[in-house]
Automatic annotation (TrEMBL):
One of its GO terms (molecular function) is pyridoxal phosphate binding. The keyword Transferase applies. Residues 24-377 form the Aminotransferase class I/classII large domain. This is Aminotransferase class I/II-fold pyridoxal phosphate-dependent enzyme. Belongs to the class-I pyridoxal-phosphate-dependent aminotransferase family. Keywords: Aminotransferase, Pyridoxal phosphate, Transferase.
Amino acid sequence: FSSKLPKIGTTIFTTMSLLAEEKKAVNLGQGFPDFDCDPALINAVSDAMKNGMNQYPPMSGALPLRLALSNKIEKLHGRHYNPASEITITAGATQALLAVIMSVVHAGDEVIVIEPAFDSYVPAIELAGGKPVFVQMTLGADGYSAPWDQVAAAVTPRTRLIMINTPHNPTGSVLSSADINSLADIVRNTDILILSDEVYEHMVYDGLTHESICRHPELAARAFMVSSFGKTYHVTGWKIGFVAAPAALMAEFRKVHQFSVFSVNTPAQHGIASYMQNPAPYLELPAFYQRKRDLFRDGLKSSRFKLLPSSGTYFQCVDYSAISSSNEAEFATWLTSEIGVAAIPVSAFYATPRESSIVRFCFAKQDTTLQQALQRLSKV
Ligand code: PMP
Ligand code: GLN
């Protein structure tokens, strides 16, 4: 039979985590914390289990969690999403992204993807029969930025969807309100939809604001906003996320969602809903991760790695061209095997070949882990 995804193999995250394990390397590759979540969150889920929250929740998600999200989004961003018709709980952001794309992209539709892009976007577009149209971010002295003039030039009558991701994996860049206004100028008077991946919404540093798509009324009216509790609450293995969108878009989303997972883990949803009543954990997240970012950056300052800016996410990209002329995949493999620190080659986030020497480190690690990694990296 012919493969539906002939070019797809194992993801780079799995590959590098396996190599890190085999080589006993410090794993700064795949993005996940090496510390545990708040015990209060575990207690909240365990209480839900003990209280009989163990059968199917509604297809759209446990109501207390949809309510908690609606209240939180309104408080943070000033936009009301109706918990009954405009919020759905998903099996992480990955399933949310796939189901959004499956629900709105028809065969032959074009989807604009800004590279580097998270590795699930393009296979999802291809499964829907869509055509990814790539625009590359530019790297200047201030870091990576989205070239809106090129996004505008990439629009055709077949453009169905534009995907954005802020804070951005892997570059750590954060869209400004001027960026969001540029996007609004591009889609005004078209029927193009927006898919906004905001899984790192609470990891924004240096006093910057997370410019959620829902803060812009004109864009919110045509946008799916996706996020994941895995990042915010240090539980990437729980695989619970959500989508918020206007009712008409959400109705289409739910048609796909109900036949891809129907619904997701009941006790985790109730546990998260009750834990969310306290805003402190997400309000404290920027300071928590900014300190780790600075610890990691300070440790690399005297090395031969050139630090690129990181204003959000838990990722730090570095340019290694002063160290090696190997390509990014070779360099990441060498760093893992010979130096004992795993990283992700940024080439994994591009479909289009390019000349660059950049790898990504994840700093969502205990200080002792970061210090061990820095000790090894300082010898490179
Ligand atoms: N989007 C981006 C940009 C990500 O970095 C991730 C992280 N894994 C995801 C989506 C997927 O999130 P989840 O683990 O909740 O499926
Ligand atoms: N989002 C995580 C990262 O970028 C990995 C997710 C995964 O393993 N699929 O590292």
